[in-house]
Design goal:
Oligomer: homodimer
Shape of chain A: extended
Structural class of chain A: mainly alpha
Radius of gyration of chain A: 33 Å
Helix content of chain A: over 70%
Largest interface: A-B, 150 and 149 residues
Number of strands of chain A: 0
Order of helices and strands of chain A: HHHHHHHHHHHHHHHHHH
Largest sheet of chain A: none
Chain lengths: 454, 454
């Protein structure tokens, strides 16, 4: 930045060459100043980084536990190599156990299980197929063998790679397919030179199983992090956040104590936003949770996919909340005199009731999930809110002129919101065009002359 | 499913044990029937799978090209192993080249570059540190060496694993950190038994570089798939979809030919939905695009992050469209007599104008990005839409009573939408409670008795 700035200055300034001595002196002084500030800057950066690391660790202490667990698993598996009697059994293949631990160890039990099983089974299957391919290629003589092996590798690798584009395989067995290609290629290629192929394949498989077992023992028995439990907690947290928004609406917008102060910075208007971005976390957690055995409160076939359905609805709800929040903020900015106090009060009360009943229902649902008890029937809790909503609709539809005007006006308001966003989009594209040096279609010589004259 | 169903039937039906012989006969007949249908079913499944594979390939033929490229790169690299003079230079380490090709080869050039560079640099750095660690441990005698090596592996693996929780490292160097841990552990552990450590590290690094280079040549020179180009196309496609929605709104809802037929199935009301889910693709493409060298129309430092900003705005726009679409559909279902035809017509015309101007602006922006030319100034294209929007607001604010009523009514309408979604959430939680066998807190013995009596 600094350099860029200096270049621009000297480009536009004719004096730079004239006052050379003075500039040279100031450059020297500036350099010295910068040099002196280096240790301070460095210290600030290190301190900032340390604070960041501390914050990440405090946010979720399980992260520290996970890091130590990876270290532990690796040290455990390297004991295999250090202890001579164990080493003699497996030879250099022991290194595959170390490799397996590094790539299989994941944060959650489900993640480790999914990767470990994928790796073990893919190795087994690919090993068998590769040994078969070797037997076939072996019968074609010394010249034909490498060619045939090459063709096999090409065909299987291409087919397996293509299978990764099938969504079902991608979701659950992506890692397995990679390991399948890997093992098949390694065994098929090395079968050309290695004599005791079966022994090699056997050793490789055993060491991989040892690696996977080490990972599993460490993840399951030392401070386990269950993906299912996290998914369960995420669901209750999301419901609570939605409830918090509605409670905020009730007290700040519709309640008796509703103030007319600026709503924009209020925390309850931000709380639903993290729900909107929860899809990726939720999908990966539910994918891993399906691999986990029963644990704690969760049985083996716990209906994890239901959590995804619930999450999708929560996000839809948060979407509607966003529309409502932006509307309420705009509304607040434009203060109008109370033109129809009676109707306003009526609707306001109705809105307050809807909010509080809905918030209560959400809190109940969240508690039900948290304690894993059957929630009170939705009809009881929500019926009050539904009744108010219906009453309000009827009330509004009595005044047909108002309703009609309202409908078109709402559409118009929503559309003019869209116009505002599209103006922002246009600005971003302008920015992109400037940064990416898009060419200018209209700027011919003539235009430039006009530009200068005007 | 079938089995589950049968068990339920026999549970609830007292006759199953009584009519044993008949049931046995029918089971035999059923088994025979099922056995006979097996080939047909199998054929149907295979045909269905083949159709699916064909569809995936036709959707994007580059997928087939990618699969063949992976096969090609693997075959190329295995030539290293088959050709004796080349093999003698590297020995068994050649297998690392095969391994590298399998794990580094990605769909896009940027993905391959990012993984390849991460792998090569992480191997180099970890190799140096591991050799240093070996030198230190070596001085502690035969007994101390494995213990010290174990401590080194534990500390470095833990620290490196923790660094993966730092978002900046996670985004760009996640794979590099994994390979760092891997190489350090492998070299440190094997340093205990291998004599020529430097040679081993050197061989490993060279073969990895060969693997990475093979991948890069194949991805860059054979039908390259550039992440940047895909990101660029995604941006224009998203803008076009938003425009399509607004054009549909104009012609179907506000235009002269606007019909009152059911809007719900119209394609233009679905078109924005894919924009809503584009975040994950966009993030990964832009992450990869930053690794790519200049190519075609894109310079080396093309501002890829601007595309992410644009994408975020497009999703916000699609969000507002969802609110509008759901409102328009509900509105359409409830037909009211024209109570205030003059105002309605006025607003309707204004809405039509806003839609068509906005759609035109979006199409212009999309074309500008596609052709990489500076878009016509947003002020010109959008000013008409902004003017209409302002005029409409002024028009509405003249009738204060209407405006006031409208504002509260809109809030109420949005809230009652929320109520509808929350009822759905409650149903989903009920479903979850049923599937996951949540315990019933109120069902004591007494309650059950009452339940039966009532």
């Amino acid at each position: 930045m600094e350099v860029d700035h200096q270049i621009r200055v000297s480009d536009g300034n004719g004096e730079t060459t004239a006052g050379h001595g003075a500039v040279g002196g100031s450059i020297f002084a500036r350099c010295w100043q910068r040099l002196r500030s280096v240790p301070v800057e460095l210290w600030c950066r290190v301190a900032g980084f340390a604070r960041k690391v501390g914050r990440i660790a405090r946010e979720d202490p399980r992260r520290v536990a996970h890091s130590l667990k990876v270290g532990l698993a690796l040290t455990l598996v390297s004991v295999l190599y250090y202890v001579t009697p164990l080493f003699k059994g497996f030879g250099v293949s022991t290194l595959w156990a170390v490799l397996t631990v590094v790539v299989v160890m994941e944060y959650t039990v489900g993640g480790t299980l999914s990767k470990g099983l994928n790796r073990a089974f893919a190795t087994l299957v690919a090993g068998f197929i590769a040994v078969g391919a070797h037997q076939i290629a072996n019968r074609c003589g010394a010249q034909g063998e490498p060619i045939l092996l090459g063709i096999f590798v090409f065909l299987l690798a291409s087919a397996a790679t293509f299978s990764r584009f099938i969504p079902e395989i991608k979701a659950k067995y992506d890692y397995g397919v990679t390991i399948f290609i890997l093992t098949f290629s390694l065994v098929a290629v090395s079968s050309y030179r290695v004599e005791e192929l079966i022994q090699l394949a056997h050793q490789r498989f055993s060491t991989i199983v040892i690696g996977v077992l080490t990972c599993l023992c460490t993840t399951i028995f030392v401070f386990p992090v269950w993906a299912g439990e996290d998914l369960h907690k995420l669901a209750t947290a999301n419901l609570d956040k939605l409830a918090q928004f509605l409670e905020g609406m009730e007290s700040e917008c519709f309640g008796e104590k509703a103030t007319s102060e600026n709503l924009e910075g209020k925390p309850f208007l931000q709380v639903y936003k993290s729900v909107l971005n929860s899809k990726a976390t939720e999908d990966s957690l539910s994918n891993f949770a399906k691999w986990e055995p029963g644990h704690g409160k969760f049985g083996f076939r716990h209906p994890w996919s239901q959590y995804q359905k619930l999450g999708a609805l929560c996000r839809q709800c948060a979407n509607s909340m966003e529309a409502l929040a932006s509307y309420v903020i705009t509304l607040q900015k434009s203060q109008y005199p109370e033109a129809n106090p009676e109707l306003t009060l009526k609707i306001r009360t109705a809105c307050g009731e809807m909010s509080s009943h809905s918030a209560k229902a959400l809190r109940e649902l969240s508690t039900a999930i948290q304690t894993m008890t059957v929630p009170p029937p939705a009809s009881i809790t929500m019926s009050a809110a539904i009744k108010v909503a219906k009453g309000l609709r009827n009330e509004l539809s009595e005044d047909e002129a108002l309703l009609q005007a309202m409908h078109v006006a709402v559409t118009a308001t929503l559309l003019s919101d869209l116009v505002t966003i599209i103006v922002k989009i246009a600005e971003t594209v302008d920015n992109l065009a400037w940064h990416a040096h898009f060419k200018n279609p209209e700027k011919t010589q003539k235009d430039i002359v006009i530009d200068i004259q005007s």
